[in-house]
Amino acid sequence: MLSAVIIAHNEAENLPRCLASLVGVVDEVVVVDSGSTDGTQDLAMSLGAKVLSRPFTSYADQKNWAAQHASHPFVLSLDADEALGKDLQMEIKHWKEDVSTLEEHDVAWSMPRKTSYCGQWVHHSGWYPDRKTRLWRKGAGAWQTSAPGVVLHEEWLPSAGGRVVPMASDLLHFSYARRPDHWRQLAQFSMLGARDAVRKGAKSSWIKPWARAVFQWTKQFGVQSGWRDGRTGWDIARWSALAAFWKWRQVSALDRRRPLKRVAVVRTDGLGDNVLTLPLAGALKWHQPDMEVIWVCRPYASALASMSQHVDEVQTWSPEDEGNALSWLQNLDAVVFAFPEPTLMAAAAKCDVPVRVATGRRWSGLWHANVRMWNSRRRRPVHETLQGLRLLHGLNVPAAWRFPEPSDWPSLVGWPSPVSGASEVSEAPTALLHPGNHGSANGWSVPRFQALADLLLADGWRVVVTGTLRERPPLEDWLAGLSSSSGLVDAVGKWDLSELLAELGHVDVVVASSTGPLHMASALGTPVVGLYRDKAPFWAARWAPLGKAHVLATSALDEEGGLQIEEQEVLDAMRQLVLRE
Q: Which of 19, 195, 256, 292 is deepest in the core (most CB within 10 A)?
């Protein structure tokens, strides 16, 4: 008699609660999945649902298609993050008992939806009662949008002459377990909302984003009594106002005469800096999949950028390059200076690149950029990746809002895993130690790395020691004394970057200070133990690895200037990471 239909994409966390609330209430559950990668389909089938697959088109179209595949004459439509409350379960059961007595023109039933925000039920702020039509006679109406091609704000509407009857009990909406979940959705919806607005012919101006933000906050916190929800009401009004701001700012960007088709990201310093900045390429592709992303780096870092599926073109630059080597600047729509290279900034201005984003805290950015960002990097404990994502706000891309947490960033690097070409496959656990760091930050002393290697070899580990040829002299005496050991591989100065990357992707754990190899390994998915000085500007708050990591930090230095972290502490951290795998 009653079919429940649910559209889903990566809803493995929410789906069990939703399906559990339908047990004993509906006679069939149909889940339409649009390419989930988190096991949603298998989970739904294991819980008794009929699972269909269909690429996502729009919310309205997807829900209409799902309803068409319901087997029973009445349809109940839920989102995966919703569930029937106990009172609503009883009300629908009673409705089923009385269905034969329904009047013919009663074709649909609405219910108030109550939302949980970070564990608190919202009773005001325009979020309640938020009545939704979710139960109807099959074929008596359809999901519709406000204009053709629009993606958001779908609504089920009855056919002519049909009546929607209100139910009394609450549909429960478990929308946001944490505030970052809200930020991600608002960033997504502000982007989709901007595209919908442009399709409907809407225009924006420099003042409109600010005006709409003020209006949205005043409406939700004041007119709709958000203040009665306390801190929750304040947060809802605040972030909704920011969403309105970004929506109308993106309308301006989409409506510009010259769209951003070719965008360069400049990072002309270290290997690790490039790794921590590569998520900008993924964020740009999320915002505009057809955008061409050009990565500008030193020649030694080009292999890192070339590995990313989000980078379409790599341009290398060295201080020795002549002007004709910068001809690629002439074809850009925008350039983002994640590293404020003065020579390239001047060249971009000379080539009249339309949008030039850089920090306004350096004279070169103040002089040559036309979009300046003012956040301080050096003394603020904000991660380098997040600070880079904030630079994209200068392109009207709300990247730091859409990807606010470290768990969001590894996938934005876009590297394949694993990388082929490892030197040896070993049954023993393998640790890669990288003692050098080119003086970029305080590291561990060579005697401490040697002591750790001795502990590992005695414990049955295979140990690989890496570094550049320039980093070899301080290690020579140690490595010469151990080169005959069957458990140690001396690769210092012997591997190129591609060989190092292959090994980093296959070992069990990497130990290093904040260096390129540490960040490369972490981005490849290899667990790492990072050794940091707990002091600006070297602190882990800014330079922590992107992936699986155990960070050990101290402000204490030994007599040689190395970090005063005990070898046993590092070994314990390594074991924890390997056991966790």
A: 19
Q: pLDDT at position 422, please? A: 53
Q: In the chain, helix, strand, coil percent, each to 5? A: 40, 20, 40
In the chain, which residues fall in CATH 3.40.50.2000?
262-413, 430-580
* Fold held by 262-413: Rossmann fold (3.40.50)
Of residues 318 and 419, the one with the higher pLDDT is 318
What is d(CA 193, CA 23) in angstroms, rounded to the nearest whole number? 35
Q: Is 402 helix (H, G, I), strand (E, B) or coil?
A: helix
The pTM of this model reads: 0.82
Cβ atoms of residues 69 and 30 within 8 Å: yes
Peptide bond into 129 cis (omega under 30): yes
May I ask the CATH class of domain 2-175?
Answer: alpha beta
CA 527 from chain center: how many Å?
20
- Identify which of 399, 400, 406, 389 has the alpha carbon closest to the alpha carbon of residue 530: 406
Q: What is the SS3 assignment for 449?
A: helix
How far, in Å, are 144, 437, 457, 489, 499 from residue 467 at the CA level? Answer: 61, 9, 19, 12, 12
Specify the pLDDT at position 105: 87
Per CATH, the number for 430-580 is 3.40.50.2000
Supply the DSSP symbol for 557.
B
CATH 3.90.550.10 segments of the chain: 2-175
